[in-house]
Amino acid sequence: LAAVLLAALAGAALVASPGARAQAPIVIKFSHVVAPDTPKGRAAERFKLLAEQMTRGRVKVEVYPNSQLYRDREELEALQLGAVQMLAPSLAKFSPLGVKEFEAFDLPYIFPSKAALYAVTEGRIGRSLLRKLEPKGITGLAYWDNGFKVMSANKPLLQPSDLRGVRMRIQASKVLDVQMRTLGAQPVALAFSETTPALRDGVVEGTENTPSNMYTQRMHETQRHLTVSNHGYLGYAVIVNKKFWDGLPAGIRRNLERAMREATAYEKTIAQRTNEAALEAIRRAGTTTVHTLTPQQQAEWRRAMQPVYAQMEERIGKDVVQAIRRQVA
Ligand code: LMR
User: Which residues form a coiled coil (predicted)?
Assistant: First the structure.
């Protein structure tokens, strides 16, 4: 009873004093679809810590992982409506906003290395892509890294022809759809949260993702084979509702930008390690045979996916694809 009374008194005090009301923290709801123990999940927590410290508690960041609040498509709508303030969707998931250029990141083998990727995301091309979100009521703050994707199924995928007829879950990206069709597979676009159940129930037979996403969602438990193909990239744009962001007091926004810069630098240091550790954990789990491709097999995969460029260049924008290719060359 005493606790209830105290809470009521505290509530009354808040109502009575306009000063106290002014101190109510600004809340940033940060929704995402992956597990906390992933590069994105850990960076979101780091941002929360830094943002709350740097604004001395004026801002409170609530992180909702694992599609707890929204699934892929819904979270973009929620951001535009202002139901949440911050997201970090994969670059494969921006076309519902009418911004198809980010699908360039899905092109097979587009980045020969992480250094080449960073040259794009941290340079002029990265900035100009984020600016395309502004007319959609969205401000892009940063790129967060995950890693190169592997492929899994219930049979070994060693040659491109091994994919023939296999139902593969993909993110909802046209480029990934065409990539799978080019390999002769049957792509099925599913929300991230639906993937593990779909693999378990046989709705799909295989998938592609980073080891950290596979391991933390326990996809490996239903996938007997995994190929370290590194054929494509998975990364994120951290985005906020523009109206919310522009409406913040300038000092607070500057502190949040600083927190984001530090969280982004941290993210970059953990992404690779987290994926290496996850691949090791999958190996140790004993459920899945991990295959590495010979240089000859790698060359075959690369050759098999090459037609995706000609088919998708128009959709993504020739200038963007060519600018990226020049940058990474
Ligand atoms: C997926 O849907 O596979 C990924 O985009 C999930 C994520 O956010 O890493």
Answer: none
Q: For residue 290, count CB atoms less than 10 angstroms from its CB and return exposed for 0-12, middle for 13-18, buried for 19 or more.
A: middle
The angle formed by the CA atoms of residues 234, 92 and 94, to the nearest 5 degrees, is: 140
Give the separation between CA 306 and CA 299, rounded to whole angstroms.
11
Does 38 sit in the ligand 1 pocket, CB within 6 Å?
no
The residue whose CA is least distant from atom 3 of ligand 1 is: 192
Evaluate whether 139 touches 132 at the Cβ level (below 8 Å).
no
Between strands 167-170 and 206-209, the pairing is: parallel
Q: Inter-axis angle of helices 124-131 and 114-121, to 10 degrees?
A: 50
Entry pTM: 0.92
pLDDT tens for 300-324 read: 999 999 999 999 999 999 999 999 9
Angle, vertex CA 207, rays to CA 203 and CA 211, nearest 5: 135
